[in-house]
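Look over this record as teaching material.
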Amino acid sequence: MAKKLDERKNDYFNALNRLEDALKKDLDDDIIIDGIIQRFEFTFEQAWKVMKLYLEDQGILDEALAPRSTIKCAYKHKLIDDGDIWIEMMLDRNRTSHMYDESTAVSIVGHVKDKYIFEFEKLKNTL
């Protein structure tokens, strides 16, 4: 399990680095916005999956089967300290995955830049 967890952490760290790189680009370019959205989706996926694996590795057997239950379990066991923002992040990820609206995308990129990136970093530091 430890090797799989280390691999998952590495995948998450790499995804986060790529998201951070994208956030340094010109946010007025719609292609950059699209790229940030895609990197946000991928980073979120890696984040909840690494949380799930970490909790399993710690022997915590709460029902961490999907993003929402994993987030709740991670909050309960202090892996993350703001469950509400992670649920908001999950909902934004769902919005970007199921439809595309430019104003929604720009709004979500603002959330990524202003608050989600800090939550991703806190998780990285905790892991």
